[in-house]
Design brief:
Length: about 270
């Protein structure tokens, strides 16, 4: 826990005192406004500016006149320059309804033009946003690494089981990270999101009801921050029973064989 706290404090320190000064700008129907904090950690504004947006240039988040929008942004920059301040980096945030991301599985193509065409064809079938007037960007992911990587979250006695399963399955060229999630509240949000982006598939195992426990907490976080396929090995809404631990684990799908099945299932879902 001390290590996690240290990491979090370091991240906060970097945000408050980054090596490079970073500004933020908001563009809406009425104004362009922005600010930049000094990078000495004092939270003092290095510059701030607000400039009116001409009526009709932006409507519901969509630029109606590219020429007028460009002119307004140039004028806004002049307003900043009056303060004789420069900022090398600007953070740009887009509303979620205006962009779409997806992982696509396409045949290996030799020409970049062919890959571009394959990506656009897939997006026409999947994207909720019309792509004819959209900016499309893509990159090739190393398929072997992407396809065969996942993260197991476990706690208590099941951490040992998870480590054994991960060790055995790695011989099949499947990459695994095992996270000991020893507390649900507070939830280690930073680590969960980090591994969601890194392995893009989770298996959550817990000797607890499937609903209202560790799996539910992680699912709620991931569904908002970075949606990925998740499989569960847990008690599936059944009354508690007494018996030998090994037999109960086997009955409720918490033994090594059942956990491996969940792993193979989530890896298959990654490509669909």
């Amino acid at each position: 826990m001390k290590e996690n706290i240290k990491i979090n404090l370091n991240k906060i320190k970097k945000l408050l005192a980054p090596e490079e000064e970073v500004g933020a700008i908001e563009i809406n129907n009425k104004v362009v406004k922005g600010f930049c904090f000094s990078n000495d950690g004092s939270l003092t504004a290095k510059w701030s500016a607000i400039f009116p947006m001409p009526m009709g240039v932006i409507n519901n988040g969509i630029a109606q006149s590219e020429e007028m929008l460009t002119k307004t942004l140039v004028d806004f920059r002049k307003e900043i320059n009056k303060q004789k301040k420069a900022t090398p980096y600007i953070i740009l945030s887009l509303p979620s309804q205006n962009f779409f991301t997806s992982i696509l599985s396409v045949p290996k193509l030799s020409k970049k033009e062919s890959m571009e065409e394959a990506v656009r064809l897939n997006l026409r079938l999947r994207s909720p946003i019309p792509i004819d007037n959209a900016y499309v960007d893509w990159e090739i992911i190393d398929n072997s690494d992407f396809q065969n990587s996942y993260t197991i979250f476990a706690h208590g006695n099941l951490v040992h089981t998870a480590l054994k399963v991960a060790s055995n399955i790695e011989s099949e060229k499947i990459n695994c990270a095992v996270i000991n999630c020893h507390t649900i509240k507070p939830l280690d949000r930073e680590t969960i999101i980090k591994y969601a982006k890194k392995t893009k598939a989770f298996v959550i195992i817990e000797d607890h009801q499937k609903f209202g426990g560790l799996g539910s907490a992680i699912s709620e976080l991931v569904s908002e921050a970075y949606p990925i396929p998740i499989e569960y090995a847990a008690v599936n809404d059944l009354f508690g029973e007494t018996g030998n631990t090994e037999e109960l684990y086997q009955k409720h799908g918490l033994d090594e064989t059942s956990i491996k099945k969940s792993i193979l299932k989530v890896l298959k879902r990654k490509l669909n």
